[in-house]
Write a structure and sequence with these properties.
The protein has 195 residues and is mainly α. It is 67% helix and 0% strand. The longest helix has 21 residues, at 2-22.
Length: 195
Amino acid sequence: MGKKSNTKARIVSAAWKLFYEQGYEDTTVEDIVAASDTSKGSFYHYFEGKDALLSALSVLFDEEYEMLRHQMPAEMDAVDKLVFLNRELFTMIDNTVSPELMGKLFSSQLVTRGDKHLLNRERTYFKLLQQITREGQQRGQLRTDLSANEIVKAYAMFERGLMYDWCLCNGEYALARYAGQMMPMFLQGYRPAKK
């Protein structure tokens, strides 16, 4: 099992690196196979074609979240944790994902009849956000007049909105820097009212 998931992860990682470096259109399945040191058979075992790799970006994001989960001090404020996760993920996007590629991911999610990976509640992303939000509510750091689900939905929607705008503007600004200004202001509305 470990070897299989490692092969899939190598393919995904190599593909996204190539997409970033030479563009999605100019990357072939052969390029991906060579860069991942796998075979065409392995590639087609996991993916129907190059387009199927677009949805795999959420897998890379979730791997990043797994690493980040362990970097956050347990005592850190819930809002600070959410800002931290956003900054780190968006820094990764700034450095490894082109606006064109992110736009392709969004458009593929809009037209898919299958799984909308960006909305999949079983992803590490949503589970981690739920955990942080619930803990924040228990500690009095986040409002309790809204459910954890409502806060997580709003946070995820705001993140997608920031990424979508970055794509529309063709990455003319640093996503992480802009979100670093906007996300704390957005999250301030989820703090409990001062008595």
